[in-house]
Amino acid sequence: MELLFRIGKEGREVKQLHQLSLRLQTIAREVPKGSRLADIGTDHAQLPVALMGAGRLSYAVASDAKAGPFQTALRNVEAAGFSDSISVRHGEGLQTVGASDRIDSITIAGMGGSLITEMLSKGANKLEPVQRLILQPNVAADTVRKWLYDSGWTLVTEEIVQEEQFYEVLIAEKEAAEDHRHAYKYQNWEDAILFGPKLLEKKSEVFQLKWEQELAHLERVLQQMDASLQRTEIGEERERIKNRIKRIREVIK
């Protein structure tokens, strides 16, 4: 009977999470069981609803700055019957989170790296009780890595998935190691920030494909620059692209 109950619970968890996109499934897997989660920029509250339905959360705040997504999230949470355990809020970034929420995990996904770091910086006073950050920047993942490094967070793992486009998921913990810089210890600093120290260790097929495509794109841009009549005006940018191409070639060779 106990075994059947356990299988039933596991089956429910798998079913709930499989309803999510591959990107959100990857994020969901990194949320510790029993978490008190703040999902910032929750959009339709898909992630907290699925995690709560799978029995993975004890409490959640689902917030969004835009009125439309906020209203949709509110309806979705009510329809799922989780109004008592998921608090849907309208507001900017971490300002929607209060001390009484006792949040220990934060997810921020589906926006640019600069916006993510801006939210974290503005809400720095809300991060003290937080043990885990799960961040999925659509662009500028290197900006997020640098912020984590400078702010004393340890990158414990990274994932990369392909779903129409490429998505990198960065997981950081506050007290994962005595020296939070250990994630970059054995790698070139600039490469670790650009490519991701954990992704460099694995060099998965998806990682290789992403950077092969980026390399092809940059080579086309460089060719266009070389054909331009204003080459002297774009010299600095041209050198930056040449340097990026060189680094990518060295990593994916």
Write the layout of secondary structure elements.
Layout: H1 2-18, H2 22-29, E1 35-40, H3 46-53, E2 57-64, H4 67-80, E3 86-90, E4 105-111, H5 113-122, E5 132-137, H6 141-150, E6 154-163, E7 165-173, H7 189-195, H8 197-202, H9 205-227, H10 235-252
Parallel strand pairs: 1-2, 1-4, 2-3, 4-5
Antiparallel strand pairs: 5-7, 6-7
Helix pairs in contact: 5-6, 9-10
How would you describe this protein?
This protein is an alpha/beta fold and 253 residues long. It has two domains: 2-186, Rossmann fold; 209-252. It is 48% helix and 20% strand. A seven-stranded mixed beta sheet has the order 3-2-1-4-5-7-6, sandwiched between helices. The relative contact order is 0.09. Mean pLDDT is 91; it is low at 1-7. Pfam families: TrmK. This is tRNA (Adenine(22)-N(1))-methyltransferase TrmK.
Q: Which residues sit in consecutive blocks of at least 5 with pLDDT less than 50? A: 1-7
Structural class from helices and strands?
alpha/beta
Classified in CATH, the superfamily of the largest domain is Vaccinia Virus protein VP39
Q: Please work out how many helical segments DSSP would assign.
A: 10
The largest sheet, given as strand count, sense and whether it forms a barrel, is: 7 strands, mixed
The CATH C-level class name of the largest domain? Alpha Beta
Second-tier CATH architecture of the largest domain: 3-Layer(aba) Sandwich
Count of distinct strands:
7
Give the helix proportion (percent range). Answer: 40-55%
The total domain count is 2
Order of helices and strands: HHEHEHEEHEHEEHHHH
Strand order of the largest sheet: 3-2-1-4-5-7-6
Could you give the distance between the termini? 54 Å
Query: Which percent range describes the beta-strand content?
Result: 15-25%
**At the third CATH level, what is the topology name of the largest domain?**
Rossmann fold
Q: Radius of gyration, rounded? A: 20 Å
pLDDT average, as an integer? 91
